[in-house]
Each structure stands twice: as structure tokens, then as C-alpha cells.
Design brief:
The protein has 747 residues and is an alpha+beta fold. It contains 25 helices and 20 strands. Helix 10 packs across helix 12. The longest helix has 41 residues. It comes from Paenibacillus oleatilyticus.
Length: 747
């Protein structure tokens, strides 16, 4: 009995459908709704053939109505739960379908996409680049005012938007997501045209996106589609559901929230923690490689002055290759933090031998060369195009995102890196976003115009997330990284062994258990009088609700495994004792004296407790036992400072109660968790009077490290005052000597 069978019975209107549906409902309980959606028993609200499947919706509703009656009348069961479940599910499918139809109706409106493809693409690219320019201007203004740069400045939700406060980072990323959605639709429409548009002549067409009502409408439609598709994703893959709320004007609205808000808030905390780690690692690299980066950026300054905006392509050829190579050093260094995040799978052999792309001839190392090349050229160009930009001069906008022949980029690349011609072509194919691209615009930043040209958008190129790009390629190429899991276990155990407050087993523990299956214990440790059983899970980071669900399935496997090991531990204690190399008591522990953990390399599940098992990431676990001091850091041009924020232990060694408290909300999570606030984000309204949709979000509304930032600001201020005093003292001394010299000469 499965959902595929149910699907067949519903489609064929078989009377047995109700019986099968009820059996599945009783068998699967809380998982029934999720299984129903994942199995495709109901048509997707965004499918092109939805209308032809409307009879399935009607038949599903009829079958559920019959089942509702059976539950109440024959089985005498309260059918409220079942009734609310299927009716709300159908409501979601139908209202999202309605929103989708309105979106398509407006998208196909005459005139919206009437301009040539390259004009439409360029307008969007210019908009993205200008948004990034304005964001940099705002952040730099804040930095000059405060005399320091806060690594979280771009991540705190301070910008007001039509759907609530958002951060600079969220705004830039939303813009690129919008462009990704629009580009795909534009390529689709262009592919349907029998006669292609001729390339436009820049002087004949206004390519500024501003004061263009059609462009504004296009942007709203893209945002609207992203929002409604997001709601379907969180309903389908994360089991969100709506509750009916009343707005201030008493209008009814559907508000989509997760089953467990606490768990979702922990996931949002993880997102902010990832961002902070990335920014902090970059800041540390800036400090560690201060001189090399400074030299590299000086070369970029010099090269940007050689760029002619009117003849960008020609001026690229004239750039001195030795200076270009020196400039690229900065972006090679900036890749270090991203590669650190992937240290669980990356080593030199992996970087050189793992091949990606359709022809499987590009190594990860060669991909990294392509990224650092593009990011260097992007920084050189944007420095020139942004310098002294006049917002009121519309003729300047075309320079923000120029079109360039792909062959020109390939030729310049080969001057710096002597790769074979076929490899270079494949590399730039991998880095180009084109019709039917498998990867997103964040990973393929060169925007396809035709077989010869791309649009060069510095802001998209600078947004490239190296670790995410590598993981996406590995996923798309179906490259197995599970073999690297052993390295992860060894590294984590080795780190924990550095602590003298916990006993960690390093011996291999594997045997045939009493239940007839082989068992292997990843990590057994003893802390005070408690036994710690830890299942290790090495996972790639999820970036979407679907990926998050897949990773959670792996976590759930880990939970089942560690709970099985508890039973084995109780039944075969002597066997386990004989295999470990730590001192365990003679008698088996009570179940309440066993701490159950699933430890993973990603942050998304840290702090969650499921079926009595706590999920934690390895950096938090190691932090508690090995280095309990929490510091705040400030990296200046010539020196770095740190301040002790807190200690995880009150005494010289931790207590079990301190560990239990820590597991509830590890410090790396709590910093962000406590500064997130619930915000119902509204879906853009297409027309007045339609039913409103909202979905829950937790933006970061306060700086978790404001106290430390103020402390560093006072240190910097004091140092600046001391420097001024020293300069004044030196100047006064110099003046005194001059006066004394004058008096002597007069005599």
C-alpha cells in the first residue's frame, strides 16, 4: 500500500481510493500530509497542465469528504484534524494557482517584453549594478562615520521595503534572484520567436531602467513569483501551514507558519551565523595577509585608471599582464575562507582531480582560477565605473553593465593562465548563465546575450559564493563525497582529544550486535558520570527548503542510529567496554545517564531536539570542551584587538549542568537567536480586494555585538587621540627647535 497506488485510484475515480487514503492516514499519522504532497497525488499549482488535472483536485476533495464521514459516523473518530488538513491543503493549492494565473496574465501583457532581448537583459543588469553601488555608498558612509567597519553592517534589517524591513545583503540577493527568474522567462520567450531581434544600437535606445513603468512592473512580477513559489516550497518540503488572521483593516489574510517556530528560528539563526562566519573569516584573512592584499589593491587602483568606459573591451587588452597577475592575488586570498568552509571534503588532490562540466575536463582548481580572474576584472571595472558617478546623468548608466565578447575574456584569461583552448572555452561556458542553465545566476555570473557576447555585471560576479558553487557542481555531477565523512569524524575526535575535561574513545568499535545487524559507534565519550553517544554526519550545506528537507532526512537517520546504539549499549555493555580505550564503569549506565547527540558540520539543525536527541555542530561541541572563552575581534590596518565577551564555564572545568544548558542554545546560535524578531512578510498584492498572503520570517533586527563594537570604537578613538597628541607633540618640538635655531643664528 503506497501513495503511487492512491494516486492511480484517484485519477481513475476508483471507489477503493477512500479506503486506501484512510489506511495511509492512520499508518503515517503526522507524515501523511507531507507524503501526500511529495508523492504528487495533487497537481502542482505552477504546472503548465494544471487545468487538465483539475478533475484530480475535484476527485480528491470528493474522496476526502467521504473519508471524513466515515471517520465521524462509522469509526466515531473526531475528524476535525483530518478535515482541516485536507481543506487547508486544497485551499493552498488553489489560491497559489490563482496567484500564478494572475502573474502569468500580467507577464504576457502586451508591451512588457516587447523590447529586444539584449535591451531587456541590460536594463536589469544595470539596475542590479546600481543597487550594489548605492549599497556600497551607504555602508561606506556608515563606516566613515563610525571609524570602523562592522562585518554585520550589511546583514542587519534596516532597509524598509514593500514586504517589511530587510538587510542590504537580502536586498542584493533578492535582486539577483529576481534577475534569475526574469532572465529564464526572457530566454524562453526569445526561443519561441521565429525571427530574432537585431542587436540594438546603444545611442538609439534608452537602456536606463529608471523612470520606466514597464521595468518597474516587470520587477514586481518577478518578486511576486519568487514569493508564491517560496510559499509552495515551504508548504511542500517544510510542512508549513496557514492560519487565518485579521489585518488592521479587518481584512482576512492567510499567514503561513511552520509547525515549530522555535526550530525555524534556529534555522534563521544558522543563516545569520553562516554570514557572520564568512564575513569574519574574510576580515581575519584581510588582517593575516594585510600587506599582500594592500599591494594587490594598489595595482587594481592603477589598472582601473587605464580602463576606458567607452571602449572597455579594447582597454582590457592594454592592461599590463604583470600588474593584472599581482591584482589577482587579493582574490586568490579571498578564496581561502570559502575553502576553509569545505575543509571536510577539500584537499589538494580533490581540487586537482575532481572534474566538472559537461565534458568533465575542468578541475575545481581551474574553476577557482576562472572565478578569481572574473572577480579581479569586476573590481577593476566597477572601481572605474562607480568613481564619481552622477545619478542624474542617465547617459552614464550604460557603463555600469557593459556588453563584451566572450572571446575577449577568454583571450585575456589565456594571457594570464596558459590553459588549453578547449579548456578555456569550457570554463567560460561553465561561468555563463544562459537558456536552460542548471545552476543559478549566483554561480554563473556572465549573462548570455548570444553565442558571441555576454553582459558583464561586476556586482553579480562579486556575489559569487565559492563554497556554494563547488557544492552545487558536486551535487549536479553526482560526485560522491561520503568517503570524506571518515576524515570529518577523525578531525572532530582529534579536536575533542585536546580537552582534559572529557574522555574520548579513539579505538574502532564495530561488531555484530544482538539484533542481528552490524553496529559501529562513531564517538563514545565520558563526561563526569555521563556517557556521550555521538553519531557524526558530514553534510553539504542546504540552500533551499527542498535541500533542507533532504539534509533533515539524513539527520533523522542519525537520530535513529544513535537511539539504536543506546539499546545495544545496554544489552552489550561488556562488549563495548572491551573495545574502547577509555575507562568505563563496570555496570551499564541508566538511560538517563546517556547523552545522545547527532553532530554535523553544518549549522542548520544546531539546537534542535528530536526524540530526545540533541543536534549540534562540531564547532560548537569542540568550542565547549576545548576553548570556552568567547572573544570579540577587531582587525585594523596595522593591528588587531580582541576582547573577552564571556566564558562557557564558571570554574576551571565545566559541569554537566553547564553542558546541558549549553546544548539548549549554543552561544554561537544564541548571539543571533536573541536578536531575531518575528515578521509576517506580505506577498505583493496584484490587485485590490484579493485575499492576502503572508509568511513568517525572522530578520536580524539588532547587532548582536553592539557592546563589543562600542568597546572597539573607544579603543580606536583613544588610539587616534594618542596619535594626534604624538603628532602635535612632535610638531611642537620641531617648532621649538626652529625658534631656538633662529635665536642662535641672530646672535
Amino acid at each position: 500500500m503506497n501513495y503511487e497506488k492512491l494516486k492511480e485510484l484517484i485519477i481513475s475515480k476508483d471507489p477503493e481510493a477512500g479506503k486506501v487514503l484512510l489506511n495511509l492516514f492512520f499508518r503515517d499519522g503526522e507524515k501523511f500530509r507531507s507524503n501526500l504532497l511529495l508523492s504528487g497525488c495533487l497537481p502542482e499549482p505552477f504546472s503548465f497542465d494544471f487545468e487538465s488535472k483539475l478533475h484530480i483536485i475535484n476527485e480528491f476533495y470528493r474522496v476526502c469528504k467521504v473519508c471524513e464521514s466515515v471517520l465521524e459516523e462509522r469509526l466515531e473518530v473526531d475528524a476535525k484534524q483530518f478535515k482541516y488538513m485536507y481543506r487547508k491543503l486544497l485551499k493552498t493549492v488553489l489560491i497559489l494557482r490563482e496567484y500564478n494565473e494572475k502573474n502569468i496574465e500580467y507577464l504576457t501583457d502586451a508591451g512588457l517584453f516587447s523590447l529586444p532581448l539584449d535591451v531587456q537583459l541590460t536594463k536589469i543588469c544595470i539596475f542590479l549594478e546600481n543597487q550594489d553601488r548605492l549599497a556600497d555608498k551607504m555602508v561606506n558612509s556608515e563606516r566613515r562615520k563610525n571609524h570602523f567597519y562592522n562585518v554585520l553592517e550589511r546583514d542587519i534589517a534596516r532597509l524598509n521595503s514593500d514586504h517589511g524591513y530587510i538587510s542590504v545583503t537580502d536586498n542584493i540577493e533578492a535582486g539577483i534572484e529576481m534577475a534569475d527568474k526574469l532572465f529564464r522567462y526572457m530566454y524562453y520567450l526569445d526561443g519561441k520567436k521565429k525571427q530574432k531581434d537585431e542587436n540594438y544600437i546603444e545611442n538609439d535606445v534608452d537602456i536606463s531602467p529608471y523612470n520606466d513603468p514597464l521595468f518597474e512592473k516587470m520587477g514586481f512580477l518577478a518578486q511576486h513569483r519568487i514569493q508564491i513559489e517560496h510559499i509552495w516550497e515551504i508548504v511542500k518540503y517544510r510542512e508549513w501551514d496557514f492560519e487565518v488572521i485579521r489585518l488592521e483593516n479587518e481584512q482576512r489574510a492567510l499567514y503561513y507558519t511552520p509547525n515549530d517556530k522555535q526550530h525555524f528560528k534556529l534555522e534563521r539563526s544558522a543563516t545569520e551565523r553562516y554570514r557572520y562566519r564568512e564575513s569574519n573569516n574574510v576580515s581575519k584573512v584581510l588582517s593575516d595577509y594585510r600587506q599582500q592584499i594592500r599591494n594587490s589593491l594598489n595595482h587594481i587602483d592603477d589598472l582601473s585608471k587605464m580602463i576606458n568606459l567607452e571602449y572597455f573591451e579594447n582597454s582590457l587588452y592594454l592592461l599590463p599582464i604583470d600588474m593584472l597577475e599581482e591584482s589577482m592575488l587579493a582574490f586568490k586570498i579571498f578564496q581561502i575562507p570559502a575553502l576553509m568552509e569545505l575543509d571536510y571534503i577539500i584537499d589538494e588532490e580533490f581540487l586537482e582531480n575532481t572534474k566538472i562540466g559537461k565534458s568533465k575536463i575542468i578541475s575545481i582548481n581551474e574553476l577557482l582560477l576562472g572565478i578569481e580572474f572574473l572577480q579581479t576584472i569586476a573590481r577593476i571595472y566597477s572601481q572605474k565605473s562607480h568613481d564619481g558617478f552622477d545619478d542624474l546623468n542617465t547617459s552614464l548608466y550604460k557603463y555600469l553593465a557593459p556588453r563584451i565578447r566572450i572571446e575577449s575574456l577568454e583571450t585575456l584569461f589565456t594571457k594570464v593562465y596558459p590553459l588549453q583552448r578547449d579548456k578555456v572555452k569550457e570554463l567560460f561556458r561553465i561561468l555563463t548563465f544562459k537558456p536552460n542553465s542548471e545552476l543559478d545566476l549566483f554561480s554563473q555570473p556572465l549573462v548570455f546575450v548570444n553565442s558571441e557576447a555576454v553582459i558583464f555585471v561586476p556586482s553579480i560576479i562579486e556575489q559569487m559564493n565559492v563554497s556554494r558553487i563547488i557544492e552545487q557542481h558536486l551535487s549536479n555531477q553526482i560526485i560522491d563525497i561520503s568517503v570524506k565523512g571518515n576524515n570529518y569524524e577523525i578531525d572532530t575526535i582529534s579536536s575533542l582529544k585536546k580537552s582534559n575535561v572529557i574522555e574520548v574513545n579513539t579505538a574502532h568499535v564495530e561488531f555484530d550486535a544482538y539484533d542481528g545487524k552490524t553496529v559501529q559507534f562513531d564517538l563514545i565519550a565520558k563526561f563526569e558520570d555521563k556517557i556521550m553517544l555521538v553519531e557524526m554526519k558530514c553534510l553539504s550545506r542546504p540552500y533551499s527548503p527542498k535541500e533542507l528537507k533532504n539534509k533533515e532526512a539524513e539527520i533523522d537517520k542519525g537520530i535513529a542510529q544513535v537511539k539504536r546504539r543506546v539499546n545495544i549499549l545496554m544489552h552489550e555493555w561488556d562488549k563495548v567496554r572491551s573495545l574502547v580505550n577509555i575507562d568505563l564503569p563496570k555496570d551499564p549506565p541508566k538511560k538517563e545517564d546517556i547523552i545522545l547527540l547527532v553532530c554535523t558540520n553544518i549549522f542548520d539543525f544546531t539546537g534542535k531536539v528530536k526524540h530526545g536527541v540533541t543536534i549540534i555542530d562540531d564547532s560548537s561541541l569542540v568550542k565547549f570542551f576545548v576553548s570556552p572563552e568567547i572573544y570579540g575581534y577587531s582587525h585594523g590596518e596595522n593591528e588587531s584587538f580582541r576582547v573577552l565577551r564571556k566564558r562557557l564555564w564558571k570554574g576551571t572545568s565545566p559541569t554537566i549542568d553547564e553542558f546541558y544548558e549549553f546544548l539548549k542554545k549554543p552561544v554561537a546560535i544564541s548571539d543571533f537567536f536573541d536578536n531575531l524578531e518575528e515578521l509576517p512578510r506580505p506577498v505583493i498584492m496584484m490587485k485590490r480586494g484579493e485575499e492576502r498572503l503572508y509568511y513568517l520570517d525572522y530578520p536580524l533586527v539588532r547587532d548582536p555585538f553592539e557592546k563589543e563594537n562600542n568597546h572597539f570604537y573607544n579603543i580606536i578613538k583613544k588610539l587616534n587621540e594618542q596619535n594626534k597628541q604624538a603628532i602635535n607633540k612632535k610638531s611642537n618640538l620641531k617648532n621649538k627647535r626652529k625658534k631656538k635655531k633662529k635665536r642662535v643664528s641672530k646672535r
